[in-house]
Design brief:
By secondary structure, the chain is of the alpha/beta class. Helices cover 36% and strands 18% of the residues. It has eight helices and eight strands. Strands 1, 2, 3, 4, 5, 6, 7 and 8 form an eight-stranded mixed beta sheet that branches. β2, α5 (103-110) and β3 (122-126) form a beta-alpha-beta unit. α6 (160-173) crosses α7 (192-202).
C-alpha cells in the first residue's frame, strides 16, 4: 500500500515538470484581409458627362475657399477659369499670379476683357520649360494659396530630383500657414500615394485625411478604371512642414 501510494505521488509531482517541457501550442494564425479596392464610380450618360467638368471645377473652387485679400498663385493657368474666379473672390486687396508654359495661352488671357475694379489684379508670366513654375521672381513667403489644377502630374517623364526641386521652389514662395492645392486629371500616369510621398520629400505636410471629390463630379467615361478615377477624385491640400 505504501509503495503504491508513493508511486502515485511521484506521478502527480512529475506532471508539472513534464508539462513545462512540452513545446508551446502554436498561436492561432490571424487572417489579414487585403484592403478592399476603392469602388469605381458609375459611368455617367453622355449628357451628364458633358457637365462633369463644370461640376468638378465648382467642387475644387469650393475647396480652395479663396478669401478677400489673399495673394494667390495659379501654376498652369490654362484658360484662366480658376484664376478669374479666384480674382473676383479675393478682391482688389488681393492679387493673382498666373503662369503657363504656353505663350499663346497667356497672350489670349492678357487680351481678355478686364474683370472689373472689384477683382484682384491678374499678372500672367511665362514659365520657361517644365522645370520652372514662372513664380521664381516672387520673394519668399509671398503667397497665401497656390493652385496646381490639372496642370502637373509629377509622373515619370521627369526624374524625381527635378520634381522635388520644383516643389521646393513653390514651397519658398508660400507663406507659413499657406496651402498648396493640387489636382490631377485622368491622363496622369502616377499613383496618389506617389504624389503624396513626393510632396513630403519636398517639405510639405499632408492633411490628416485625404480630400476626395464625390463620384458625381467625375466624367466617368473619361476615367474608365478605378485607378484613373482615384487620381481624378483626389485633391491634395498640402501645408508647410516648418
Amino acid at each position: 500500500m505504501r509503495n503504491g501510494r508513493r508511486k502515485r505521488w511521484m506521478v502527480v509531482l512529475a506532471l508539472p515538470v513534464l508539462m513545462a517541457c512540452q513545446p508551446p501550442a502554436p498561436a492561432p494564425q490571424r487572417v489579414v484581409q487585403p484592403p478592399a479596392p476603392a469602388p469605381a464610380c458609375v459611368p455617367q450618360t453622355p449628357e451628364i458627362d458633358g457637365q462633369a467638368v463644370d461640376r468638378m471645377r465648382a467642387a475644387i473652387l469650393g475647396l480652395l475657399a479663396p478669401q478677400p485679400g489673399l495673394r494667390v498663385g495659379d501654376v498652369g493657368v490654362g484658360g484662366g477659369w480658376f484664376a478669374q474666379r479666384v480674382a473676383e473672390r479675393v478682391g482688389n486687396t488681393g492679387a493673382v499670379f498666373g503662369t503657363d508654359i504656353d505663350a499663346a495661352t497667356l497672350t489670349a488671357l492678357r487680351q481678355a476683357p478686364p474683370l472689373g475694379p472689384q477683382a484682384a489684379p491678374l499678372r500672367y508670366t511665362l514659365a520657361v520649360g517644365e522645370a520652372q513654375s514662372g513664380l521664381e521672381d516672387l520673394p519668399d513667403n509671398s503667397l497665401d494659396l497656390l493652385m496646381l489644377i490639372d496642370s502637373l502630374c509629377f509622373d515619370q517623364r521627369l526624374p524625381q530630383p527635378t520634381h522635388v526641386a520644383y516643389l521646393r521652389g513653390l514651397l519658398r514662395v508660400l507663406k507659413p500657414g499657406g496651402r498648396l492645392v493640387h489636382h490631377m486629371d485622368c491622363t496622369c500616369r502616377t499613383r496618389v500615394a506617389q504624389v503624396e510621398a513626393l510632396f513630403q520629400t519636398a517639405g510639405f505636410t499632408l492633411p490628416p485625411a485625404r480630400t476626395e471629390l464625390p463620384c458625381a463630379t467625375l466624367a466617368a467615361a473619361a476615367c474608365p478604371d478605378g485607378e484613373a478615377q482615384e487620381r481624378a477624385r483626389f485633391v491634395g491640400v498640402f501645408g508647410i512642414a516648418r
